[in-house]
Structures are given as C-alpha cells and as structure tokens.
Write a structure and sequence with these properties.
Helix content: 25-40%
Strand content: 25-35%
Largest sheet: 4 strands, antiparallel
Structural class: alpha+beta
Distance between the termini: 119 Å
Number of domains: 4
Number of helices: 10
Strand order of the largest sheet: 16-14-15-17
Radius of gyration: 34 Å
C-alpha cells in the first residue's frame, strides 16, 4: 500500500506533515497485534502515526520501534499518571521539562511538590504518606520549639535526616541533630547540656500486651520514659502499651544504681518471674528485665517505696541547703 495523501496531522499539539510512500503490510500486522492502527507516514520516512485502540488517540512512533518493541501510548501513560495521582491524593499539574521521570503535583495540603512518578505510585499503594517539604519543615520547627530549640536549616553534610538547630531557650549553641532525636528528646546540647549520668532521670514501670490477654511489665530507667515507650522499645507501633508510673531520680547514675538494686531484689524475692527473651523478642527491642503480669502489683509497690525514700532524701537535702545558707548569712 502506497500513501500519496498530502497535508498534515496534529499529533500531541505538533503539526506533522504527512509523508508519501509505501506502508508495508507487515507494519499493519504488527500494529494490529500490539493494539494500534497505522494511520499514515508522518514527519519523515521512518515515522508512523499510530492510533491507539484503547483510547483512540494518535501518537508518532518510529517504525522499527513498532516492529521490535511494544510501543507505549503516551496518552494512556498520562491517563495512568493522572489516575495514580488521584489515588495518592495528588493532582498532576505538569511534567518536569528538565527530567522525564518527574512531574509537578498539587499535594493534599495544597502545596506544589515535585515528585517522581514511581514515588507517587508508592504513595498510591500506601507504602508511605504524601510527604510535603513545606509541611515537613513546619513540623520540624514545631518539634524543635517543643524542645526549646529553633530550626536553623538543612544539614551541611547533605544527610536528609539531619538538621541544624539552635538552643533558643538555653545557651544558643548550634548543633547537628537528627529529626527523630528532636522528636524523642534523645540528645544533649553541646554548649550547656550534661550527660545522661548527671542529668535528672526516672525509674519507670511499663505494661506491654504481647498477645491478646498476655501482658508483661518492664522495669527500667530513662531520662525521658515517654520517648522510650513511644519510639524505642516496641517493634510494632500498634503494640498496646502503657506507662504505669515514673519516679523522679536526681541523676541518671543514681537511677541506674537504684534500678540494679530493684532487679536484684525482685530476682531474690520472686525468682522465676522474669520472662525469657524468646517470649518477647518479636515484640520489643530489649533483651531482659521484662516480668510476668502477676508481678505488676509488686513492682508498683516497690516503685512507690522508692519514690517515698527519694522524696525524704530530697527534703533532707533541701533542709541542709537552707541551714547552710542561714549560717552563711549569720556569719
């Protein structure tokens, strides 16, 4: 079949001249087998206008691509991008002219974001959320302010999980801290901060539901027990858990010393009540010091005794300080 038609076709916004010449039967056969119909030769002797049997739109394709590969209809591809964007909660705005793998979207929050097509597909699948850089920065600033710090900027070393913060409510020192540690509070100011051993700490008791109806109790110490409970101990964020109580300790070193005594007393007075590691390894990131649920009242009474003792010690210390101050004033 020889094509002698003159004129042009508008294909994807571009006017392409129709080229005379033979359209080989094998091109028609290949096009039909791959879901297309050959409309004309366009642009030059090597290019065909193919009509997609799925969407009815026309695009230009080299004949050797048709013969050797499965041509992709760009109209169908863009329709899939649009549908994937809707499933992910985005609105596809336009392709990125600088990189064919990227496009600009309207995020659910209303901000314009640049994303890879594959990344939006993973959001649509539920593999992760529709993150927005502007919203993430606002959250980073809020998290920093909650800890008494100000967000200064991105990590100079280029690490995505790090930021530079200023100790606004303290000495004003700058520090490179991970975003996760800002949220959990597990960091120390390099200018005025003290180490864990000299900072105030807590003894705590926590309850974990390892399986329906099967609980375990954790006795430990931490500078921020809530951070331990919510971010560090569990392997599954949906694991039911509760902070039962916490007892203030004057330093981390003191808390560690009292905790060791408590575990030694429990082992002596209630042998065999500590759970084996195999019972909770799949649920918690700890290796020991987890007790059976029956021991919970005993542990709470023990912490109550420790709390009363610590309160008496603090009162005596305060009285001694007042007496010392009075002697210095009278001297």
């Amino acid at each position: 079949m020889t094509q002698n038609t003159s004129g042009s076709l508008i294909i994807r916004g571009e006017e392409l001249p129709i080229q005379p010449g033979k359209i080989h039967p094998k091109w028609h056969d290949a096009a039909k087998a791959k879901g297309y119909r050959v409309v004309a030769r366009v642009k030059d002797k090597n290019t065909l206008a193919l009509e997609c049997e799925t969407c009815g739109n026309i695009h230009a394709s080299r004949y050797y691509v048709l013969m050797n590969f499965q041509p992709e209809c760009p109209h169908c591809v863009e329709a899939r991008w649009q549908e994937t964007a809707r499933e992910a909660g985005f609105e596809l705005l336009r392709r990125d002219p600088q990189n064919r793998h990227y496009a600009f979207y309207r995020a659910p929050c209303g901000h314009e974001v640049r994303r890879q097509f594959g990344s939006v597909l993973r959001v649509a699948r539920g593999e992760f959320g529709p993150e927005c850089e502007a919203c993430q920065e606002a959250r980073d600033r809020e998290d920093a302010r909650a800890r008494g710090w100000d967000l200064v900027g991105a990590d100079p070393k280029g690490k995505a999980n790090y930021r530079i913060y200023r100790h606004a409510d303290g000495c004003g020192a700058l520090s490179r801290i991970t975003r996760g540690n800002i949220v959990t509070g597990r960091f120390t100011c390099p200018g005025c901060g003290e180490g864990w051993s000299t900072e105030p700490s807590y003894l705590y008791a926590m309850r974990f539901e390892l399986q329906p109806g099967k609980h375990a109790v954790k006795l430990g110490y931490s500078r921020i027990p809530e951070s331990r409970l919510n971010y560090q101990l569990h392997r599954d964020p949906e694991l039911p858990r509760e902070l039962l109580c916490k007892v203030p300790m004057r330093t981390g070193r003191h808390a560690q010393r009292i905790e060791k005594r408590a575990h030694k007393w429990l082992a002596t007075q209630h042998p065999g009540m500590e759970l084996p590691h195999s019972d909770f390894a799949a649920y918690l990131r700890v290796k020991s010091e987890l007790y059976r649920a029956e021991l919970e009242p005993v542990i709470l009474r023990l912490l109550d005794r420790i709390a009363r003792k610590e309160a008496r010690a603090a009162a005596k210390s305060f009285a001694r300080q007042r007496s010392r101050s009075k002697r210095m004033r009278d001297s």
